[in-house]
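lol ok so funny story. i was supposed to be doing the assay writeup but got distracted and ended up predicting the structure for this chain instead. priorities right. anyway since i did it might as well share w the group, maybe its usefull for someone
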Amino acid sequence: MDKIRKLKEMIADSNRIVFFGGAGVSTESGIPDFRSKDGLYNQVYKYPPEYMLSHSCFESMPDEFYRFYKDKILLKGILPNKGHFALAKLEEQGKLSCVVTQNIDHLHEMAGSRKVYHLHGTIMTNHCSTCGSVYSLEELEQKLELSMVPKCDKCGGIIKPDVTLYEEMLPDDAWNSSMAAVGDADMLIICGTSLTVYPAAYIVEYFRGKILVIINRDATPKDAKADLVIHESFGEVMARVVEGVF
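and the output, tada:
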């Protein structure tokens, strides 16, 4: 309880808060993370998940790529959790400048967040890898009902999700906007990430503000430098904070 009260005070004293989140932010919504004991990297598949979510796999074995993508990434009925809604409320109240996320699930926007930077892209849009034609998530899902490998209506090229795969560079716009926001923040809240996935984790090094908070189930490499560390549920912590701050 003392840590929750302290976090409330920190938020009340800050005006340019940036939230940096990873897979742990969405696990309470039913989306599996990657590196925990129950995560995708510790499950058995024909190929390692790192390979099936790689540019190489998409290029050389698009059927295997889409089999994994459809089964483990395009999950049905997933909704924002209490933490997502709490962040949207903080933005509405003028406290939260933006969300920087490694997640591709679009749950922040579903909860009402307006300024979200997607370091690893998003499942919501897709494009033809040959001609660049754009397809929505719904259009991709319709194609996947008919064929394991979705093809472009215009040129027959393979459609690729607008997500950052292994071996690919992060999107420049999201990266540059995130760096600027973190550099200008007076408070940075890190949540649900092991801070071991680079280059995304490196963005923390741009923080020059006064308050660093880490909310994560497990310890991270930055815990010793944080002003506050909470090893509890993201959704519960943020919901309790927002309900009592203002």
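DSSP finds nine helices and nine strands in the chain. Residues 1-30+80-118+169-246 form a domain with the Rossmann fold fold (CATH 3.40.50.1220).
back to the writeup now i swear
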